[in-house]
Design goal:
flavoprotein; FMN_Rdtase-like_dom; alpha/beta; NAD(P)H-dependent oxidoreductase; FMN
Length: 180
């Protein structure tokens, strides 16, 4: 059995934030989209738990927990990342974290980006804020991003988009797996 190592990074304010809930749906959809005989090992990280570590890292101290997360990103077969949208862009914590990641750490890695926000007016943040960030870092971003608002996470249109994005990540990831 082949195991796919996927790292999930969410930047919601709490472990049960809208961003974390969207990440869980994306994880399940990726699992459903993978070929038979492929298992997944997920490592989920909520950036709210790393705020002090990120601040320490900025001051020159490299906390072990953050260093371990960077190592997991380098070893990942694929990445799922979700941010809340504030004032028409990703959260400051999300940006600060990804600013600490070296481009070679995720270069060429399949990456599914998603976001949550208060209204549909901010859905283009995926294309004008997140996509350029991950392009700079060299990630192999999925063409389909996912954006949700309160109350739309379980709507048919959102679930279809989640399945499409998850299918793209599964396809990109499966290409990188060794074939028997």
């Amino acid at each position: 059995m082949t195991t796919l190592n996927i790292v999930v990074v969410t930047a919601g304010a709490a472990r049960h934030s809208a961003s974390a809930l969207l990440a869980e749906k994306l994880q399940q959809s990726v699992k459903d989209a993978l070929p038979a005989g492929t298992s997944i090992k997920y490592s989920t990280h909520h950036l709210g738990q790393y705020t002090h570590d990120i601040a320490d890292y900025l001051e020159g101290d490299a906390p072990g927990t953050l260093v371990a997360l960077f190592e997991q990103l380098r070893a990942a077969d694929a990445i799922i990342t979700v941010t809340p949208i504030f004032k028409a862009s990703y959260s400051g914590l999300f940006k600060l974290f990804w600013d600490l990641v070296e481009p070679d750490d995720i270069r060429g890695k399949p990456l599914l980006m998603a976001a949550t926000g208060g209204s549909h007016r901010h859905m283009l943040a995926l294309d004008y804020a997140l996509r350029p960030l991950f392009s700079y870092l060299g990630a192999d971003t999925c063409a389909t991003g996912v954006y949700t608002t309160p109350g739309t996470l379980d709507e048919a249109r959102t679930l279809d988009r989640i399945r499409r994005a998850a299918g793209e990540l599964a396809q990109k990831s499966a290409r990188a797996l060794p074939h028997s």
